[in-house]
Amino acid sequence: MRVHLLCHPHERPQKCSLRPLWGRDDVSMTIWPDADGIPRDAILLHVEGPPLGPADRGRPILLVDGTWNHARRITRGLPHERRGLPGFRTVFPRASKSGRDPKGGLASAEALYVASLLLGEPDPSWLGGYIWREEFLARNAERIAELSTQPV
Questions:
Q1: Per-residue burial over 103-115, b = 16 or more CB atoms within 10 Å of its CB, e = otherwise
Q2: Residue (of 126, 34, 38) closest to 81 by Cα position
Q3: pLDDT tens track for 22-74
Q4: What pLDDT does 54 receive?
């Protein structure tokens, strides 16, 4: 799975769930508003959109990384097809001052792992270094097991 991260310039590294993934060969990172290097056929992971699935396999994944307020502003201007990641619950501790975190929203590392599952290419390394890894896997164990028994 090829991943393009579009990061808000003020995203705090200490709060970024993707920091352990920086430097991977299958990940490129761009600082918003520069989005020129992101392929037009990339699929934008988003809380709104039809579910990501095996038919999307082979296309690059685009993930916006930042606070929910920043992500809303960034995604407004992106022309990419959107896909959702239904049926999973985050364990990332949220402290939103606006109270506008979307239902079904996941931390970035969680979203990439779920994307790999939904594409039929489960890759636990997306949760590598994620400090809430075990809690996330436990909270979503039933959904993960359901996907692992479905034909691809």
A1: eebbbbbbbbbbb
A2: 38
A3: 789 999 988 899 888 899 999 999 998 999 999 999 999 999 988 878 888 99
A4: 93
Q: Which residues pair with 65 in a beta bridge?
A: 7
Would you say the pTM of this structure is higher than 0.85? yes
Cis ω on the peptide bond leading into residue 93 (within 30° of 0)?
Answer: no
pLDDT above 80: residue 103 = no
Which two tokens mark 103?
């239902």
Residue with tokens 């949760």: 127
DSSP per-residue letters across 86-151: TT----SPP--SS--PPTT---HHHHHHHHHHHTT---GGGGTT-TTHHHHHHHTHHHHHHHHTS-
Residue 26 pLDDT: 95
